[in-house]
Design brief:
The chain is of the alpha+beta class. Helices cover 35% and strands 29% of the residues. The strands form two sheets. It has a four-stranded antiparallel beta sheet, covered by helices on one side. Strands 3-4 form a two-stranded antiparallel sheet. 17% of the residues are buried.
Length: 139
């Protein structure tokens, strides 16, 4: 198979993986709640053979400032710091990154870290990283 065929094959599989992740993020209300109640965090998607095996969500250990008050991101926060439209935008950015990625993402861990700035009108950034060192083997 030539390189162009590989790219098309990877992109086709990445689109299917993006659809799986979109369904998980859209249907799981707990992830939505966690996202809207923190200003930063990381979603990790563990894949094997282009199938989503596991999804995790982590928040940083450091205290964050909201309206001049320090908040521990690990504590349960009943107040939504971000709204649903920002969660939908986050999902869109993740899906677009996967859909147009021409690399092999079939056996890896994908990390999407977001950070919002409450003082700038809840503008946020999303950073993508992946870990190709995790290999699945017969155990």
């Amino acid at each position: 198979m030539d390189n162009k065929t590989n790219i098309k094959s990877y992109q086709k599989e990445n689109i299917a993986l993006a659809h799986q992740i979109k369904l998980e993020l859209t249907n799981d209300l707990e992830y939505k709640r966690k996202f809207t109640q923190t200003l930063e965090g990381t979603f990790s998607f563990h894949t094997r053979n282009y199938s989503l095996q596991r999804m995790n969500y982590e928040v940083p250990d450091k205290e964050i400032m909201v309206d001049g008050q320090g908040i521990d991101p690990k504590e349960q926060n009943d107040k939504a710091l971000l709204d649903e439209s920002q969660y939908k935008l986050f999902i869109t950015l993740v899906i677009q990154n996967l859909r147009y990625n021409h690399e092999f993402l079939g056996n890896t861990t994908l990390y999407y870290t977001y950070k919002a700035d409450n003082e700038l009108g809840k503008v946020f950034t999303v950073h993508f990283n992946r870990d190709m060192t995790r290999h699945f083997g017969n155990r």
